[in-house]
Amino acid sequence: MPPILWSMLLLVATPTWAADADGRFAIKGVGATSCGEFTSLLANQSPDAQRHLGWLQGFLTAENRHRAETFDLAAWQHPATLVAALQDYCRAHPQAAIYTAAMALIEAMEPGRLREQSLRVEARVEGKSISLYAATLERLQRALIARGLLAEDGASGQFDAATQEAIAAFQRENDQPVTGLPDQRTLQALVHQGG
After folding, report:
1. Residue in 125, 117, 172 with CA at minimum distance from that of residue 144
2. Do residues 189 and 182 touch, judged by C-beta distance below 8 A?
């Protein structure tokens, strides 16, 4: 088939979710790597580990595109947090394919996904900053309100002094490093799956 026809075919093709009659399908490329091999690549700091991590980012992008009511499945998770979660799954399931581990990760993240686009805001404290979605910060603020650490009208989606103080209070109460920043550990505790 001439290249121009392939291009036209791709433009009009609609995505379909299909498999054989038994629900099986071929897993291609890095996705077919076993979890055991993946954890070994990470442990040995192999350059091939970066290829796997790039595949994960692309896979998440595709899932964001094709899942209903989804803007970002990883609404607050840093890539290192995703890798740690993937490693946990892979240690428990060394024979599973990375594709299977990625799907388990996505299913775990789906309830806490960002359903609509949101602006990003910067949380800055003492020269350190963290960028996150305003919607994620608002969820964090609602969790702090529910714990009595932030005033009832504090869920603005903006990082202010009251939010910084509430985060620091939460971190102190939970034996976390007190930064006042919405770091991964704090977000995990307060907004994971809608926390």
Report:
1. 172
2. no
